Amino acid sequence: MSYKAKFKVWRGEGGEGRLEDFTVEVNEGEVVLDIIHRLQATQAPDLAVRWNCKAGKCGSCSMEINGKPRLGCMTRMSTFDEDETITVTPMRTFPVIKDLVTDVSYNYQKAREIPSFTPPAGVRPGEYRMKQVDVERSQEFRKCIECFMCNNVCHVIRDHEENKTNFSGPRFLMRIAELDMHPYDVADRQEAAQEEHGLGYCNITKCCTEVCPEHIKITDNALIPMKERVVDRKYDPLVWLGDKIFRRK
Amino acid sequence: MTQTTPEAPMRRQRAQVKVRTLRTDRWWLVPFLTFLGLSSFLVYGVWAIIDNSIFVEPYIAPFASPCLAAATCPEGAQLFGWAPIGDWYTLSPGLLILALPGGFRLTCYYYRKSYYRSFWLSPPACAVQEPHGKYTGERRFPLIIQNVHRYFFYAAIVIGLVLAYDAVLAVVHKPLGLGSWILIANAVLINAYTLSCHSCRHITAGRLNHFSRHPLRYRAWTFVSKLNAKHQPLAWASMFSVMGADFYVRMVAKGIIAFPYA
């Protein structure tokens, strides 16, 4: 069963551009990325789109479909009405290179600012001994495919470009939480999360969780636990007193 | 039609789309319903403070419990007959304790999400532009005070136990009374909501990195984590249950509800 679908696709370079109208064939079982490829093949050979695995595992084809951050390869055409006009735009938080391709180097910059896993002095690789129960909590965060849709949808930087300097976004606050929860990591992640990566900007409105294609509970399992750890460290006088009395580190 | 706009230079490189959102679904519905739900709770809370029909043997209205004022709490309503606030206090007894459950809900991680979205529109929904020109989050006064949530959690544990005690007492004295079982249902929901709190999850074992060294705390954390996954529905259910139970007791106290097993 095929039909002709109406599409509006954002086309342009360096931020300046427009929504262009297309009418394109849709076949049963296809996803939005298939339709974008058909547009390339038939009507707009210079349409730029980043893609790779077509299986929801590489995180390349992040885009906004009818205003919602989605993976093009995981958005089935059958979820839309046949007479619906489908709007496809690039991720709004990042600068446009061309058409649907954005420059996501902000994310790589933030990733570089996080010190890597830091084991205790004197413990060499191969000597780590951990129980599964100690590491499985943070294993959820390893499912991240780095599509950066959580950072794209986060209003802290989506609506306020000026916050990009001080806020690393949910993806990298989750990375900090992952390291902070690791039984063998000894780096000071809590102070860095609050002071350098802007955890305090997060007002836990959970859009990062809503758009995550891997269904990681970013807010409940990473950001809020990290906020609570920061409260322990910076804002709770009883914990401070307990640490002093019992000489806890 | 070209959609270029003369926006600030810093944002020039983003895709310039003039509209606030391109979402085509009814994204405004959830924040609107949330606004109505939370507003109804606020309006009811104000009425409950003004209204004095807080007790009818053996029921005490949850909004007024624990009843601590000697002058305005009937003898049967006082917790263990204890009324530390003397005769000088003649206002509503609910006013004395309102800050504790109110503060718990106000600083709750779920309620924060709901009122930031529905009242402050920050953001109203995902991928919908917020109307504010500047955003500093919970880093500064007054929102930095949200970090006090765990202290309200400690208080909420006490309030939850008091409501459970009130409900058990009602069942003991009037086992066939509808009100007794309404109070029991309310106490269960209030305590489930309290225990599902993110601060509770952190305190049980969330702050630890070695669960294997603390098996009992880990089991508690696992239990709280399961409840925590239901924090949002529990927040709503307990909010409506406490309003419903409170309203029911006041209606019985006023004689408006007066059937034999009320």
From TrEMBL, chain A:
Gene Ontology annotations for the cellular component aspect, listed alphabetically: plasma membrane
GO molecular function terms noted in the UniProt entry: 2 iron, 2 sulfur cluster binding; 4 iron, 4 sulfur cluster binding; electron transfer activity; metal ion binding; oxidoreductase activity
Residue stretches making up the 2Fe-2S ferredoxin-type domain: 5-92
InterPro entries, per the entry: 2Fe-2S_ferredoxin-like_sf, 2Fe-2S_ferredoxin-type, 2Fe2S_fd_BS, 4Fe4S_Fe-S-bd, Beta-grasp_dom_sf, Helical_ferredxn, SDH/FRD_Iron-Sulfur, Succ_DH/fum_Rdtase_Fe-S
Keyword field: 2Fe-2S, 4Fe-4S, Iron, Iron-sulfur, Metal-binding, Oxidoreductase
Cofactor: [2Fe-2S] cluster; [3Fe-4S] cluster; [4Fe-4S] cluster
GO BP term (any one): tricarboxylic acid cycle
Record field: transmembrane: none
Superkingdom of this protein's organism: Bacteria
Pfam families: Fer2_3, Fer4_8
Biological or metabolic pathway of the protein: Carbohydrate metabolism; tricarboxylic acid cycle
Family per similarity comment: Belongs to the succinate dehydrogenase/fumarate reductase iron-sulfur protein family.
PANTHER family assigned to the protein according to its UniProt record, in alphabetical order: SUCCINATE DEHYDROGENASE [UBIQUINONE] IRON-SULFUR SUBUNIT, MITOCHONDRIAL (PTHR11921:SF29), SUCCINATE DEHYDROGENASE IRON-SULFUR PROTEIN (PTHR11921)
Name recorded for this polypeptide: Succinate dehydrogenase/fumarate reductase iron-sulfur subunit
Species, as recorded: Nonomuraea terrae
Automatic annotation (TrEMBL), chain B:
Protein name: Succinate dehydrogenase
Source organism per UniProt: Nonomuraea terrae
Domain of life per record: Bacteria
Sorted UniProt keywords: Membrane, Transmembrane, Transmembrane helix
Keyword Transmembrane helix carried by entry: yes
Parts of the chain that traverse the membrane: 27-50, 88-111, 151-172, 178-197
